[in-house]
Amino acid sequence: MPQHRDDVVVGAGLLGLAAGRALAARGRDVLVLDQATVGHQGAGSKGGCRIFRLGYPDPEYVRAARRAAELWRQLEQESGRQILISTPQLSFGAGLADVQLAMQQAGAPCQLMAEREAAERFPGVRTGGPAVLEPESCVTAADTALAALAAAVPDLRTGVRVTALADDGRRVTVHTTEGDITARSAVVCAGPSSRALLAGLPGWPAIPTTPTLEQVAYLRPAAAAGPAMPIFIRHGGDESYGLPVPGTGQYKVGVHHGGPPAGPDANDQRPDQALVDQITAIAAASLPGCDPAPVSTERCVYDNTPDEDFVIDQVGNVAVACGTSGHGFKFGPLFGEWLASLATGDHAELPPGRFKLSRFG
Ligand SMILES: Cc1cc2nc3c(=O)[nH]c(=O)nc-3n(C[C@H](O)[C@H](O)[C@H](O)COP(=O)(O)OP(=O)(O)OC[C@H]3O[C@@H](n4cnc5c(N)ncnc54)[C@H](O)[C@@H]3O)c2cc1C
User: Fold this and answer.
1) Is 53 contained in some domain?
2) What is the pLDDT of residues 75-128, one digit of tens each?
């Protein structure tokens, strides 16, 4: 492999692929490396689907999600693949008012519904109170999204582990299991392993991320199948969520931040019975459209920050994006633009300052 590049991206999950694509689109000679394969079992980006929503309790996130939607649509056009599948969403729970306000402030369409109205329109979900209908939500075909991003990365090498980085102020040396590579810049998108890769690099503060091993369950429709299920998110309380799985008839349910602490390479796929029981109870109480007994489960690592805001920052010739805290997928191509702007210094589309590491003091 060539020993000098413009940019080396560490990690070929959602963020690394998006960064690689955005850098290549800027004409850079970029190499993306992953220790395993795209979408492998232990990656946070694996699996078939994610929720794309505009609804956040903060208008800056709502605006970012709207921009990300534009970029996903561009990727759909370029790749000829459908990534966002339009699906109505019901949001409810104690945090609802903040979500509705932020959406209104950012000019995102949303509609407040009484509990009864929501039940009439979406009998498969019990909201237990008023709900906001988010008409621009989508199910993201996550595996298709990864494939489309990967196809736009000219040089992607899997099975190559980055063991260390060094930055002498002029260039970066990337030490790998296949030899050293020098580059004008490195972009670290190694999920929960980013923290260890950057620890000790001069000028870098500690990255306070902690992984957890989350679990989702897949449910089949109730015996008396009704109208199509919407996406749902409960803001507050058990922080549960659900979405239809494209092309399967199944419904995926999870609990945001429900899993135990884990190591950065956690990959134990055995179901956690306590989490299975919790999801079964949520389905029995709130999802009359589903049979509450899961047909299967899946485990997946969250890379968490203390405040659930992402980490996107740069010191010298090294940039990082990690700490996506279980809600990063929807922003995929926008992460790419932000990182390419940092790495090239073109400042075309910079990340919000709230994602800098200096916020941790
Ligand atoms: C159960 C679950 C549900 C989710 N639901 C949603 C949702 O509905 N909506 C949403 O927006 N987001 C959701 N997310 C979050 C979203 O999936 C993640 O934020 C995103 O996929 C993280 O991508 P990443 O590229 O940072 O990490 P990863 O996909 O983990 O990629 C990191 C890559 O770096 C590689 N790597 C690590 N160390 C090295 C090294 N030293 N050398 C080379 N390669 C290395 C790894 O092999 C890995 O492939 C969910 C996440 C989970 C787990």
Assistant:
1) no
2) 999 999 999 999 999 999 999 999 999 999 999 999 999 999 999 999 999 999
Q: How far away, in angstroms, is 191 Cα from ligand 1 center?
A: 6
Q: How far is the CA of 2 from the centre of ligand 1 (A)?
A: 27
Which residue is associated with the tokens 């659930």? 308
Whole-prediction pTM = 0.98
CA 217 to ligand 1 center in whole angstroms = 18
314 lines ligand 1 (CB under 6 A): no
CA distance 26 to 342: 12
- Domain identity same for 158 and 292: no
| Same domain, yes or no: 181 and 313 | yes
Name the amino acid, one letter, at 188: V
CA geometry: angle 91, 328, 271, nearest 5 deg: 80
Judged on CB neighbours under 10 Å (0-12, 13-18, 19+), 213 is buried
In tens, the pLDDT along 319-347 reads 999 999 999 999 999 999 999 999 999 99
